[in-house]
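Feature request disguised as a bug report, sorry. It would help if multi-protein outputs had a clear separator. Right now it looks like this:
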Amino acid sequence: MKERGYNFIYWRRKLPVSEMMLWLLCMHKMTIFATQLVAELLEKLEQHIEALIFAADHPITLEEIGNCLEEVLGVSFSGEEIQQAIEQLQQRYAGDTSAFDIAAIGSGYQFLTKGAYHHTVSVYLKQTTRKRLSRTALETLAIIAYRQPVSKSDLERIRGVNSDYAIQKLLEKELVAIAGRSDGPGRPLLYGTTDKFMDYFGLRSLDELPKLKELVQTDNKIGDDEAMEEEVNPG
């Protein structure tokens, strides 16, 4: 280490003073340029992240944001830097001038409409959406959400009817997924909810599900054999 330092000093002494000054000036300008570049990237960091959250079709994670920014900008941002930028965006959208929030859902972030505009969006969706989850599907999904992981036999014992069709449709819609196998006889499949379920209902965790005692039972009849999807005629 000592010898390398001496050689560097010796090499500098061999340079003419004019060349040494030019070398120092170039190093100084490069440092200034690098500092300005980093500052510009940080200044636009929020906009890049905002664009990614807007474009993503699912709650985008910090890791996904970081990987994309590194490939596009050639700079690696820490999770803390990305988190701080998102918090700044959340503060910006918190005002009354915006109809959106950036909400934490599961392990990612997504734009959501503010509560004050839910009715407007709901009316629009009713006018344009032709299919929705039926009561049968919602019953099945609710049991899975609260009892997960749950087997089909346990689910059917609660509902009182066969649930093959409902489970199959929920699997196709990716609202539930196979969560493993039971240790009981025959080792039946167990079902649980997915990240898409969390996204669909705007939940950050299962702890945000309404407590069962908070739910009001409006109809004692269960096990309706109606179709999995109901047709909704546009108004």
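(second protein starts here, but nothing in the output says so)
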Amino acid sequence: MSMLVERLKREHGLLVDTLNKVKELGVGSREGQQKLLSAKIGLLAHLKAEDGQLYPALYQEAKNNEALRRTVEAFARDMETVSKDALHFLRSMRTEAPAWNLRRTLAACMRSSARESAKKKRACTPSTIS
């Protein structure tokens, strides 16, 4: 499983690099939109690997460890919310004005995701982040 974790960590870095490139190119530019699509495709593949490989392995390890099982379940619930918000955020980038800081907005979106889902459902878009 350590090879999988290392691969997922590398993918995290690639996704961050791609989003930084979007910021550099400008979200509204053709090149920025192409990079954004690349980030979305990369994120979808990454999430598929987590769902298909990481979580099943973690749940297998947690079969005989109640504390680990609760931790894995809590983490999986949080990641489901974060994943949904991140994908919604990437979709919203095609329709909203790019006059905001991409890194700050995405980071705020991901930080607030679990908090907001506990209170009420709120879409995570540039216009909903202060």
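Even a blank line would do. Unrelated, but nice: The radius of gyration is 16 Å.
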